[in-house]
Amino acid sequence: MEREEVQKDLLRRIKTVKGHLNGIEKMIEEGKGCQEVLIQIAAVRAALSKIGIAILEHHAVDCLVEKKEGEPITYQDVEEVVRTIVKFID
Q: What is this structure's pTM?
């Protein structure tokens, strides 16, 4: 996927999450049940996780392939990607 397409996809996903968060806010204001609210929170968490994974995927490609085309991948390149992954999952 091209960089612009990736950006559009990520922004679309983030807007969807914002909509879900607004819905959760409204549910709480209306006094909806805990189970209903928690189900929506779980959906938001899953959506954010997928956004993070997509960003990580494209960061790794950017660091290890596109920026280093024609050059060998260094230990530091791999280390940067690993540090980013660890920050995301921590």
A: 0.80
